[in-house]
Amino acid sequence: MGGCSSALIISMCGLVFLDVSFAAHYTDKWAVHIEGGVHAAKSLTEKHGFIFLGEIMPDFYHIQHKKVAKRSIYASKSHQVALAAEPQVKWIEQQISKHRVKRNVNFNDPKWNMMWYLNRGHGLDMNVRRAWERGYTGQGVVVTILDDGIERDHPDLRRNYDDQASYDVNDHDPDPTPRYDYTNENRHGTRCAGEVAAEKDNLICSVGVAYDASIGGVRMLDGDVTDSVEAQSLSHNPQHIHVYSASWGPDDDGRTVDGPATLARKAFFDGITKGRGGLGSIFVWASGNGGRDGDSCNCDGYTNSIYTLSISSATENGNIPWYSEACSSTLATTYSSGSSMERQIVTTDLKRGCTETHTGTSASAPLAAGLCALALQANSMLTWRDMQHIVVMTAKPENLRAQDWLINGIGRKVSHSFGYGLMDAAEMVSLAKNWTTVPKQQVCEIRYPEKSRVVPPNSRVTAALYSTGCEGRNNHVKYLEHVQARVTLTSDRRGEIQIFLTSPMGTRSTLLARRTRDTSQDGFSNWAFMTTHNWGEFAKGTWMLEIENGASASELREWVLVILGTKEHPRHRNVTPETSRMNQQFQSVYTCAGESPSSRVCIECRVGFYKLGSKCVATCPVQYYGYVEIVSSHNGNSNKTVATCRKCHPACNKCKGGRNTDCFECNPDYILESRQCIPKEFIESMSPYKFLIWFASIVVMLFVFYCAFRLCPQYLKQQEKQSIDQQPSQEMSMPPAPPSPLQNTWSTCNHSHQPVEQGF
């Protein structure tokens, strides 16, 4: 009988435990409405044994009773009765611990699960979900697509469609609806628009990066594209439109050198000086699809412009796409299509359709425009140069594979294929929120003194030019942004020419790679090759221009170095607790041991800063933790303290160490349990077992009752018979019986109806 009773009791205790686990829990705290002010409320509640925790809102207070369990399935009415009887008390309620979960971004749009570039996590997407979770969805920002029109009545676009951001330049009317034909050749603009602002949660197609942004379209490619057509499109309603996205340019055939003409150049300049109330229009441009033909985007005057954010592509696996053009003017990268085995971009399509096959850098630029819209929602006062600084500072080179990654003079990784890396939405909005406008742009030009330099066949010529950055003048540039080499050069075969520029801090940019298809004898006439690779470096020092020739004759007629940047250091933000988690890599050279030419690359950091690669940062960024160690000097005679940033475990977003058990905050696909990040899939897969556990407990209980009332009486009769048969020997040999464990067990369960206190 003892074994059966014990099983019964254990089963009942298990059921009580399950009740505690699944029921709502009362806490040891109350909310109370007391009139008469804070002092009267404090005095009255303490009189009845409560601890006064403070005011919730006027005349409503938070109180606690130390004799009540912190967590119980039963309300404690007895402790509040006396207080509730006081005339000043108008209302009182014991507080219940409610289960609340963070709302993960999960949409009902049918193609959402296929949008790998937005929802993969683990650093393999553009971190858009984190920006959304913080409330940044593009609301209040206007983006327009300069293309072949957009389908304004598309069910996934019409809610966000903005007629003030739209126009038909080709037919001179306000309606940008594309011209339909059997080939659907004018689908490009509608596809780009959906990437930016397709509506969420409407059971239709896809989700835009900035799904609450206003979207417009300028139809300008379905006809003769002239200088005036381009200028009118670039100038459309610049006080209303914030971001212009363009996925077009000159032929990507590996032989064309072309760019904006007189009116379009003026439209760009007016846009950055007058657009958005003087803050400057944001122009986002696709870097080009001429990779298969060996093209260079530095021969495209739109992507090569300082006024545009030139955006390249990365494949699903982080590789360089077959169509990608490598050049030094590329600022950053977003995802797009790749090989036949890799996924493409999901977006709206012509005739109210939906596609999973949007491709090329044409798909990358609209994604970047949407990311810029999120940053503008976070801070509508960003200038056009602020946006470029933010993109440079927050882009992530990790997980992008290229052979040409280099570290520039201030320790930042940059590539001709990917720029500064993959754009990061969450980092952009965080940095934008507390941004300090960068100082005024300065322009310094230095002309190469020699009138001409012959470049013999199959040779290389180097032209050195020393620059002070116009020091001592009103246009002094100390800290670099864009750098241009304005070149006039003759050649019998232009495609054989290669041009390189090396900065005073040692960063070598490929301004022009060999283009085997370019057989032109036109050379270059005052063409401004641009590089972004020197961003943040010092301007002062010797610049080296290298020209490498093939078998043809060539001559350098003129070279002007144009350096653009600021005299003062761009102090981008105040380092506050809210923003200190952001990457502070731009300040690296100012936290090293000095600013002399010999020490402009951080080898060690000043006290109070952590070493992160070749940079020094005041606070380790997200997914890193600070690690301090004592190391011996080279000669072994002394020790020094070295502070570095080390990588968290891949599952962690914030951590105190490199193990999975050192986490403070997890990446989106994990849940924090006892400082360990556990995959959500594992947690969710366990949820059905709650019912199985409950069901199993009931089965056990029924079995115990069956045992107690059917089997146990027979067992007792047998025991009694054996006891009678053996009674003489037992009386001689058995010691006094110890207290039965059953008594303690029953005593424990007998009081299980009392409130159970469980600490957190």
Automatic annotation (TrEMBL):
<feature type="active site" description="Charge relay system">
    <location>
        <position position="147"/>
    </location>
</feature>
<dbReference type="GO" id="GO:0016486">
    <property type="term" value="P:peptide hormone processing"/>
</dbReference>
<dbReference type="InterPro" id="IPR009030">
    <property type="entry name" value="Growth_fac_rcpt_cys_sf"/>
</dbReference>
<protein>
    <submittedName>
        <fullName>Furin-like protease kpc-1 isoform X1</fullName>
    </submittedName>
</protein>
<keyword id="KW-0732">Signal</keyword>
<dbReference type="Pfam" id="PF00082">
    <property type="entry name" value="Peptidase_S8"/>
</dbReference>
<keyword id="KW-0378">Hydrolase</keyword>
<dbReference type="InterPro" id="IPR023828">
    <property type="entry name" value="Peptidase_S8_Ser-AS"/>
</dbReference>
<dbReference type="InterPro" id="IPR023827">
    <property type="entry name" value="Peptidase_S8_Asp-AS"/>
</dbReference>
<dbReference type="InterPro" id="IPR036852">
    <property type="entry name" value="Peptidase_S8/S53_dom_sf"/>
</dbReference>
<dbReference type="InterPro" id="IPR002884">
    <property type="entry name" value="P_dom"/>
</dbReference>
<feature type="active site" description="Charge relay system">
    <location>
        <position position="188"/>
    </location>
</feature>
<dbReference type="Pfam" id="PF16470">
    <property type="entry name" value="S8_pro-domain"/>
</dbReference>
<dbReference type="Pfam" id="PF01483">
    <property type="entry name" value="P_proprotein"/>
</dbReference>
<dbReference type="GO" id="GO:0008104">
    <property type="term" value="P:intracellular protein localization"/>
</dbReference>
<dbReference type="GO" id="GO:0008038">
    <property type="term" value="P:neuron recognition"/>
</dbReference>
<dbReference type="InterPro" id="IPR022398">
    <property type="entry name" value="Peptidase_S8_His-AS"/>
</dbReference>
<dbReference type="InterPro" id="IPR006212">
    <property type="entry name" value="Furin_repeat"/>
</dbReference>
<keyword id="KW-0645">Protease</keyword>
<keyword id="KW-0325">Glycoprotein</keyword>
<dbReference type="InterPro" id="IPR000209">
    <property type="entry name" value="Peptidase_S8/S53_dom"/>
</dbReference>
<feature type="active site" description="Charge relay system">
    <location>
        <position position="362"/>
    </location>
</feature>
<keyword id="KW-0720">Serine protease</keyword>
<keyword id="KW-0165">Cleavage on pair of basic residues</keyword>
<keyword id="KW-0865">Zymogen</keyword>
<dbReference type="InterPro" id="IPR032815">
    <property type="entry name" value="S8_pro-domain"/>
</dbReference>
<comment type="similarity">
    <text>Belongs to the peptidase S8 family.</text>
</comment>
<dbReference type="InterPro" id="IPR034182">
    <property type="entry name" value="Kexin/furin"/>
</dbReference>
<dbReference type="InterPro" id="IPR008979">
    <property type="entry name" value="Galactose-bd-like_sf"/>
</dbReference>
<dbReference type="InterPro" id="IPR015500">
    <property type="entry name" value="Peptidase_S8_subtilisin-rel"/>
</dbReference>
<keyword id="KW-1015">Disulfide bond</keyword>
<keyword id="KW-0472">Membrane</keyword>
<dbReference type="GO" id="GO:0000139">
    <property type="term" value="C:Golgi membrane"/>
</dbReference>
<dbReference type="GO" id="GO:0004252">
    <property type="term" value="F:serine-type endopeptidase activity"/>
</dbReference>
<dbReference type="GO" id="GO:0005802">
    <property type="term" value="C:trans-Golgi network"/>
</dbReference>
<dbReference type="InterPro" id="IPR038466">
    <property type="entry name" value="S8_pro-domain_sf"/>
</dbReference>
